[in-house]
Amino acid sequence: MKRISWPALALPARLVLAAILLTSGLHKTAAPAEEFAAVIEAYQILPADVLLPFAYLVPFAELALAFGLIAGYLTRACAAGVAAMSATFFTALASTVVRKIELDSCGCFGSIHLTPYQAMALDLCMMALAALVFLHGRSRYSLDAWIEAGDPGGKAV
Amino acid sequence: MPPKTKTSRTLLAGAVLFLLATCLSAALRLSASVYQPQAPAYRWEGPPDAPVVIAEFSDFQCGGCRAAAEPLNQLKTLFSGKLRLVFKHSPWDFHQNARAAAVAAECAGRAGKFWAYHDALFAHQQDWGAMEKPEKLFAAYAKEAGIDEASFTACLRGPDAAAQVDKDMQEAKQRWVRATPTFFINGRRFVGIRQLRSSGFNFIERTLKK
After folding, report:
1. Residues 6+ away with beta carbon under 8 Å from B39
2. Chain B residues whose beta carbon lies within 8 Å of the beta carbon of residue A35
3. What's the ipTM?
4. Alpha-carbon separation of residue B196 from A47, B68, B116, B160 (angstroms)
5. Same structural domain, B19 and B61
6. Which residues in chain A have Cβ-Cβ distances shorter than 8 Å to B14?
7. B170 belongs to a structural domain
8. Residues B52 and B124 both lie in one domain
9. Residue B50 belongs to what domain range?
């Protein structure tokens, strides 16, 4: 039986992660930030003062991470960022389930509504994909490869 | 000349990607136009030349919309003569009688009693909200407001008031109104009472100081 080639799966995993983040980031950015702030408010976790800045920051972070993953730039760092973000969202959603807070929308994809359990399942999938990219994400089809091919006298970041 | 060292390549690639994400984000954010509300005259309250215009997207069956009356009254007192309020219908499908209530309010508006009827609907929200057929109560509120029963009933049966409500609902959809109450104060959006209280009041003060 043929063994699974994890490094071969890492490139599609990277692109799938990027596509999810891009969809999510674009939907949130195209909608007014106040709408997303109102969704976050329903989680009853963050203080009112930080809701709006957070509503601006999250979609931008999603877009930045999506671009990073598409281009394969600092791939492991981007994968770690996605895993951390997904773990945070998962915890926030789980806390609403435990506290019996009924969310009208998880806020994951703007106007596309997922139930908390669907969103938590998606977060788990994203964490698994991010782990795969973190461990095996190095690819020649990436900016990382171009950077690595640079002058060895220079310092790697 | 392309960069040769790892550090310069890392910085260049990072800067390009950051710029791309920033430009895309900014383009999407800036593409939203400033909202200029339109509505029949009977749904406006306050002087026409008021420097602050508040458009409220509301649903007569939503609890938060009923509770919004208090901060809105506070605003009217605090900034008397400087505010103009316009009511926009945004009844949700999951509120079974919300659309019918909006149509009834439109009919009351055509009889020159929009705001009295608006207050009555919110005051008795729990009475008509859960009813299977709230029409009798709607007619009773109209009678209390001094509206002619025959013309009110004819309006309810006609297509015009319903079409006006549908127009507002379409507008709400286009403006990305996804929760009620949503307020647009001089085009700037505040979702829910908490945002209205925490940021809306300050925004009005700052606008009036300019």
Report:
1. B55, B86, B87, B88, B168
2. 176, 178-179, 189, 191
3. 0.80
4. 15, 9, 23, 32
5. no
6. 73-74
7. yes
8. yes
9. 41-209
**pLDDT per residue as tens digits for the range B73-119:** 999 999 999 999 999 999 998 999 999 999 999 999 999 999 999 99
Mutate to test the interface with A, among B20, B25, B175 (most CBs of A within 10 A): B25
Neighboring chain A residues of B22 at a CB cutoff of 8 Å: 60
A118 to chain B nearest CA, in Å?
Answer: 20
Is residue B36, in this structure, part of any structural domain at all?
A: no
Name the token pair of B7. 């550090």
Residues B27 and B110 in one domain: no
Q: Over the stretch A111-148, which tens digit does the pLDDT of each residue have?
A: 677 888 999 999 999 999 999 999 987 777 889 988 88
Q: Among A147, A148, A155, pick the best mutation site for testing chain B contact (most B Cβ within 10 A).
A: A147
Do B14 and B113 fall within a single domain? no
Amino acid at A69: L
Q: How far apart are CA A24 and CA A43, in angstroms?
A: 18
Q: Out of B10, B21, B22, name the one closest to residue A147 (CB).
A: B10
Domain count within chain B: 2
Whether B92 and B54 share a structural domain: yes
CATH number of the domain at B98, please.
3.40.30.10
CB A11 within 8 A of CB A139: yes
